[in-house]
Design a protein that fits this description.
By secondary structure, this protein is mainly alpha-helical. 78% of the residues lie in helices and 5% in strands.
């Protein structure tokens, strides 16, 4: 394949630029914040699962507190009503005795309900505390993730600026090649992981290290200064 010394040099420069672009991509993909964000998201998912399991317990405890509170109010009103009836029935021993018995039963029931209410309030308080810790932990992780995303964006902007500068140089260099050379370079980049050019070292390709048989070697030397490796399909600079 025909190529001027300038075009060979351009191919070498393109390889250097493309290797640099690949390195920038790897640098961007390897930013440590990405792994940290993934870890945070996994932890937040676990917290969300924990919250879903706590909600029914919290709702049950809240329902029980409300139910028992209402019962205490009803019992208090009942006790007050019975006490009033006792006061009004003074002199009527039978009525007073019956009302007093009923009053004692209501008082004992209220005492038992108040004990249950105290236990229910403690359970609700515990559930509230757990939910608050889960929500606070989730919010803290959300804040950390936002900070890490900001760091990624800041570093990515710098990497992108380098990549844009390299891409502009690449475009200018591609213009130095003729149409066939550009086509072959693009093909080799795509097929060979971005490293499109190798050198003939003795009877071997500098990239894939495969040796060439005598007939193929003669053909490649005949195509100098630019050929194609029959093994890895890279452009092969023949000096």
């Amino acid at each position: 394949m025909q190529a001027t010394a300038q075009q060979i040099e351009t191919l070498e420069q393109l390889v250097e630029i493309d290797m640099g672009l690949l390195a920038l991509k790897r640098k961007l993909d390897a930013l440590p914040q990405r792994e940290q964000i993934q870890t945070l998201r996994e932890k937040r998912a676990l917290l969300s699962q924990k919250k879903r399991s706590l909600m029914p317990l919290h709702e049950k405890a809240a329902f029980e507190v409300n139910r028992l509170t209402d019962e205490v109010k009803l019992l208090t009103a009942r006790i007050e009503g019975l006490q009033q009836k006792v006061d009004d029935a003074q002199g009527d021993f039978r009525s007073v005795s019956s009302l007093t018995k009923e009053l004692d039963g209501a008082a004992k029931r209220k005492e038992a309900v108040e004990v249950s209410l105290k236990e229910a309030v403690a359970k609700l308080s515990e559930a509230d505390s757990l939910l608050k810790r889960v929500n606070a932990g989730s919010e803290d992780m959300r804040s950390q993730e936002a900070s890490l995303l900001g760091q990624i964006n800041e570093q990515a902007a710098g990497i992108k600026a380098e990549a844009d500068e390299a891409a502009a140089k690449r475009t200018a260099l591609m213009a130095v090649l003729d149409a066939d050379q550009r086509k072959e370079y693009v093909r080799a980049c795509k097929e060979c992981g971005g490293v499109a050019v190798a050198h003939l070292n003795g009877s071997s390709c500098s990239a894939c290290r495969n040796s060439l048989d005598q007939n193929r070697l003669l053909q490649i030397r005949h195509e100098a200064p630019l050929s194609v490796c029959p093994h890895c399909k890279r452009l092969l600079v023949v000096e």
